[in-house]
Amino acid sequence: MVDYAQLQAIIKDHLEHDRAIRSVDASGSTLEAAVNEAATLLDTSVRRLEYEIIERGSSGFMGAGRKDWVIRAYERTQVKKKKASEEALIDDDSEFVEVIQDKNGDAFVMCLSDGVYMKVIPPVANGSKIYSAYALQVLHNRGIEDFDSAMVEKIVDEAAGIYVKVAEFNHNPTHDSMASIEVDDSEMHVYVTVIPPSEGGADLSIDSYKSLLVQNRVYHGVKEEFLVQFSDRPSYREKVEIAEGIKPVNGKDAYIHYYFETDQTKVRLKEGSNGKVNFKELNIIQNVVQNQTLAKKMPPEDGEDGKTVTGRVLPSKAGSDIPLPIGSNVHVGDDGDTILSDINGQVIVAGGKINVEPVLTIEGDVNLKTGNIIFLGTVVITGNVEDGFSIKAAGNIEVKGTVSKAELDAEGDIVIYQGVNGKNGGKIRAGKSLLSRFIENAHVEAGDSVIVQDGIINSNIDAIRTIVCMGKRASIMGGRLRAGEEINAKVLGNSTSGTETICEVGFDPHSKIEMERLQEIKFKSEEELENIRLDLQTLINTKKQRKTLPEEKEAYMKELMERRDILNDDLKNAIDGIEKVQEFMNQINVRGRVSASTKVWPGVKIWIRDVKEDVRQEYKAVTFVLEDGLIRMTKYEEPDEQAKKGLDGYSSN
User: Fold this and answer.
1) 449 - beta bridge partners?
2) What's the burial of 370, exposed, middle or buried (CB within 10 Å: 0-12/13-18/19+)?
3) CA atoms of 359 and 464, how far apart (whole Å)
4) Dist CA 229 CA 205 (whole Å)
5) Region 571-577: what's the mean pLDDT?
6) How far, in Å, CA of 645 to CA of 648, rounded?
7) Could you say which of 176, 439, 568, 570 would form a disulfide bridge with 201 (CB–CB 3.0 to 4.6 Å)?
8) Residues 292-303: pLDDT tens digits?
9) Would the pTM of this model clear 0.90, i.e. be above it?
10) Contacts of 633 (CB under 8 A, 6+ apart)
11) What's the pLDDT tens digit per position in 72-82?
């Protein structure tokens, strides 16, 4: 055992160890004043302090009975930041990385009926361990001066976190600490209020607290970890919550998970490979294909029942179910929760239901507001299509206004009610037929027919079957028109020279285009091969005379020979392609005719198959046909009935 003088000597010997603990006792007239005093002593900011109340202060009555607040304060240890190299080692798939808070070791004293007990807890992470001097100070603060110093040293060294007897205790049961338990009316919260022991009185152990809880029918929701800490260092005369019931958690309601953007006005700009954004590509229309998954219902979930501190079950509510938002042209999958598309088209949410629309209607013009249009169905434009914009549709395209220098591409028909002015740059391709009021300065391709009411001016038109102009001003003036079966108009050409009108029939226009492409390749290959032959001959002759060539000339000759091999392959492929196309065109059994119900002006050039006729005089109501290898003029022949219907006979259905 040690007396007080020996205790002072021990404290002096361990002074430098004691400084590392970084804790101080401070007092003040208010809690705030005590905290500020502690911050000054520790030379740190208030925000970095952690403290515990040793003694609660009181303002007294009329100045009498005034007591200062007494606290023990510690400087909060900061969590060290991970180095970048360490952060890189963290698995990206982990949801979180637990950060362990640094915490210093500590010592606690508990006076019980059979003696004085001490517990030392070890530090956490990078916290500081305590030394014997600190443990001795804790004993001194509790007024314990006669104790087993060797045992204290052992407890500090082991820091096992369990209470060990270190001294005898003169117990006075009437001065024991007392606690009262309060359970609220909802049986969801339990509070304890502890009265400190007087001199000779015993502390309340954790078992005592648990016994009190059982006496008050508290079986669930006890805050075990907090209760351990509270028993080590209780807050006296303060109502503290030590148990809490579990509230019921209602189940989540069913909801619909959409696999498309439900906000139809949301613009989704895309950045090109060059880093620039094309504001014509707004991606507003959401195309879907048949049997594509559009949405799925996530089923309601069961709730989790709660429980009061006395063990009474608090039932939860299961989530509510909702019906599937089935609209038009969609169906429910085999699982009963998935919504799929019946057709190709645009998916939208209207009236809270999912619909797939086979027809996309654009109210107004196609411009910067709408962007370019790509749709897996039919597109209807109530206004115009402005310069530089494009419409691509898997169905038909209908334009109520005019089409300017734009691009239209449809797998079905294209109908333009007010006409086309391509400004020598517009391009229109119809998988089936094109119907228009007029066509001017445009490029047009049609998989079947091109039917125009008022006329075609300075345009290049290709149609697999027919090109027909049947209105009051149905003239074809200028440009190149190619059709498999027939070109028919009121007037062909015009009275003034300078505008060439070429009409070609009796063949597949696509084959004719391919033939021209192959012939161009053949011509250029032959021309370049001839130039290479001359250059090589010059180099060979030079080498014969000089026996050798400079290094750069040798390299150039090698390049010419490699290029010659490539061109010979291209030439062979082009010749083979020309033969195949020619063979296919020879097999086409199309009569071919060019007709004008009113007039054909001189200067018009007519091709029927591979026979050409330059019109040198004016003809009226005439049809040109091929007979016995010659183009002959016959009585005018009407086009078929379908061509006569034109725009008036067209229906988008």
Assistant:
1) 466
2) buried
3) 27
4) 11
5) 91
6) 6
7) 176
8) 999 999 999 999
9) no
10) 619, 622, 623, 624
11) 877 755 444 44
